[in-house]
Amino acid sequence: MIKENAQKLLNDAAKKAKIDGTFSVGFSALPKLCDFQCNSCFALAKKLGKAPFEIAEEIVKNIGKNEDFVFSVAKPAFINISLTQNGQKKLALEVEKQGKEKQEKKQTIFIDYGGPNIGKAMHIGHMRSFNIGEAFKRLYKKLGYKVISDIFLGDWGMPMGLIMALLEKENRLDDFLSGKEKVTIEVMNYAYPKASRIKEEDETFKKRAEELTLAFQRKQQPYFDFWKELRRVSVEEIKKVCKGINVDFDLWNGESNASEYIETVINIFKDKGLAYISEGALVVDVAEEGEQIPIPKKSENEPQRYENPMPPLMIQKSNGGELYATSDIATIYYRNKFYHPDIIHYFTDARQSQRFTQIFRACKKAGISPIDQLLWHTGFGTLNGKDGKALKTRNGGNVALSDLLEMLYEKAGQKLEQNGTQYDDDLKRMIGNAALKFADLSNTVEKDYIFDLDRFTSFEGKTGPYIQYTACRIKSILAKAGKFENRFDFYTDEQKDVLISLSKLEESYDQAFIEKSLSGICSTLYDLAKNFSSFYNSEHILSEEDEKKKQTKLSLSKLTLDAISRACEVLAIELPDKM
Hints:
Largest sheet: 4 strands, antiparallel
CATH class of the domain at 401-571: Mainly Alpha
Number of strands: 15
Shape: globular
CATH superfamily of the domain at 401-571: Isoleucyl-tRNA Synthetase, Domain 1
CATH topology of the domain at 401-571: Isoleucyl-tRNA Synthetase, Domain 1
């Protein structure tokens, strides 16, 4: 890697100058001044008892002339590094090679994202989980990991019991159980919201829903078969939505798959003496040193409070009922039993962070998760309205995912009309999806962000459609150019800016893995698109009369399109042929 070569030259020069220190190289903060930069001299000044500028001068003096780089010192003590023509050619070939190389790592990463409930319409929270999880799945594959993805459906709880109770209340359940009436997504979308409202006011109805839930959980017929049909129809609908937003899963498991292992994991905690009864419930202590420190009471009647509270994890209700936490532990148990992943990575709402900390600690204490297995949780923020509050419908409910997508696709159609482009539903879908995915992934994962439909769908600025538009422009150039010889003899600042952006984009994938955020990929992808536009607007490409220069420009264009395509593949953004 050419940046590492510059770093090696600096460290070799330091040894030659008998300077004890390590020198690192990064991209320049002032690209008009140089391409790379070393700021290590500042930190070494006190240790070596020398002025930082003096250290920098000694290092550069001991490097000598190099065919790939020009080193210089700038006050107060920066070592500036610029690529020569030869260095630029090497960097271009390196970027081209990186795009073709396939990495292979031995580790397996199991990714859990999505998590919609069966029988309920998906809402905007699921979109964040889909976007982030899908992009990380693709990132891990790009980096050479074996990846297994699971949507992990909420398919074993109250929603389906409520649907059954509502249909029974309306004297329709027998018709469904006998097959006289067919289960449809419309039936579920009607029944679940209505049943949810009734259970808040009618305790008898709620109790009946709980009884029906218990019936299918115990595989009691005909309720268990009806549950299977509810699940089948829901999964078909979810798959249709996922296909439309360019998301897919290896596994379509859910809480029902974990249910048969719940008794097993509870017994593991009991047998190891980790579980005890507290107020009738079975709990496991997961607090670590410095947590759960009792605060002295001011009176006997005052409830006990704690510093750095980390409450025990409840794994069984006082009535013997199951909990989400127990289901999650059982899921880790069966994933290790059948798939043996090195890493399990969860993507959920950030408000679940403490719960996952408790679950991970409990699994480690019980040996359900091996010592060397990594358990990660990435919590994401909310998609908010312009008032800064979580985006809601007028009546205060969650915005349905289908409604959100329809808004995006309609706006995308309007933008295409303004651009004078003929379009179909598929093009609207691709642009609408790119608008939301890029806006979503451009933000630091855990942060909330504002839903701005006009800004997201703009064909200008830091947006998904702008990236797509840049790719379409390059596709058009290359289609008109036909065959050309690959050549990397760069000669303008605009061309070099594109080249450096390409290198930054290639480096951003490893950084995204470290930071557990896709925002760096989005930023460098936008910088690449922006720098290519500057190059395109300042230089003639197809009309270039000098054949060698034309080949260089076309080669840089092809290199850019390939890099944009790879990045968009990671972000699950599709690239249309026209816009």
